[in-house]
Amino acid sequence: MKINKLNSIILLGLVAIISILVAQLLWTKEAFNLEQKKLSQKAHIALLEVAKKLYEGTNHELPAQNPVQKIANDYYIVNVDNDFEPEILEFYLQTEFKKMNITTDFEYAMYNCQSDEMIYGDYISLSKKGRENKTVYFPKHKNLVYYFAVRFPNETTYLFSSMRFWFILSTVLILILLIYVYSIFKLLQQKKYSELQRDFINNMTHEFKTPLSSILIASKYLIEQNPIKEDKKLHTYTDIIINQSNKLNSHIEKILSIAKSDYVPLELKTEPVLIVPVIKETITNILLKYPEAVIKIETNSEDYVIDADVFHFTNLVYNLLDNAVKYCNEKPEILIRILKENQSLKLEFADNGIGIPPKKISSIFDKFYRIQNEKSNEVNGFGLGLFYVKEICNLHCWKINATNNIEKGITITLTIPYKK
Fold first, then answer.
1. Long-range contacts of 213-219 (CB under 8 A, 24+ apart)
2. Do the Cβ atoms of 402 and 411 come closer than 8 Å?
3. Quick one: pLDDT band at residue 383, thresholds 50, 70, 90?
4. d(C-alpha 287, C-alpha 321), whole Å
């Protein structure tokens, strides 16, 4: 089975991020072990210094064998073979730990050979103010007479706090992985929905075109028959069938072209175009459809030339004029202004229609978007006209925006680069 290119990229990205995360976790584990060894070494050195201090000023010598023994990761015993005072031991412990930069809490206990038990010393807090009084069990050790034990109850927490950077980095990588997986899930979901939409539109429009073609052929044959020509009502009804069928056919073609442009970009054939004659010709076609409309052009020159695709530019102007006429409750009046500003040419299409709510005006160029108003039930359409206009502007690298007029209607403005 051939693997899709997108799926391959997703898989590679996922493997890469997981590999980095696994490597980061392994490095974090190694860093933890290293920090644990460092703490153990510093504690060993500090306790050895404490033992030396306890022998100073006495007639005894420090044993040749290392007096410090590590019983567990957080538990040490020190054999001194010499009597000592608890206050002196505590002072030396705090001093040496401070020298070695051991800032975690500790607790100590001493062995009393007379009572044959461990006498609890104290809990020393180096990271907090004050001390905590706790009773902790310290086991006895055979073959030792004078010794003391030290435990670091918060060793793991202390090590974790010293590795804050590593854990933050690992957490960030985990978050990146989760975001990546979520993004990929949403991408695949969107891709699936997009393919379903495309297939639905293609199937729906093709299924519509077959019976529609039959209706058009039959209607055109029917209208040529003498009984139909002689009956004014029948001729009118047949003519309505043909006109509405043609309108439906144009809607279907528009849907197909928009659906196709989502996957195969439209190709423009740009050439120098005199825009005023094109606009006038389009106005003539619109007036055939809407003879009651009044459309005027206001311009300082008839010689404005732009680089454009004539076919798509004509459709663009037609769509804007068609919308302006359809969404109007009174006699449609449209003013097309052509202005030159600096290095740009502006085409303004101002109408006297019903207008658009300010909150919704930014959405009118979205695909399939139709505003619910008093004219929406009267006007047939799929919300593709202005989307098509926006796409053509984007392909030409033009800017388009819509604003409400002060009194009524809207103005749609095209900003076209112009260097002549």
1. 215/241, 215/245, 216/242, 216/245, 216/246, 216/249, 219/245
2. yes
3. low
4. 10
Give the confidence band of 335 by pLDDT, cuts at 50, 70, 90: very high
Q: What is the pLDDT of residues 11-61, one digit of tens each?
A: 787 788 788 878 877 887 888 888 888 888 888 888 888 888 887 766 666
Cα gap 40→158, rounded to integer Å: 13
Which of 138, 162, 158, 160 lies closest to 150, judged by CA? 138
Centroid of chain to Cα 187 = 11
Q: Using an 8 Å Cβ cutoff, are 418 and 306 in contact?
A: yes
Two tokens, residue 340: 């030159």
For residue 345, pLDDT beyond 70: yes
CA neighbours within 13 Å on the CB side: how many for 97? 22
Closest CA to 387 of 296, 311, 316, 336: 316
DSSP string, 266-320: PPP--EEEEHHHHHHHHHHHHHHH-TT-EEEEEES-S--EEEE-HHHHHHHHHHH
* pLDDT tens column, 313-324: 888 898 889 888
Amino acid of residue 204: M
Structure tokens at 198: 């495309």
Of residues 49, 71, 217, 189, the one with CA closest to residue 139: 71
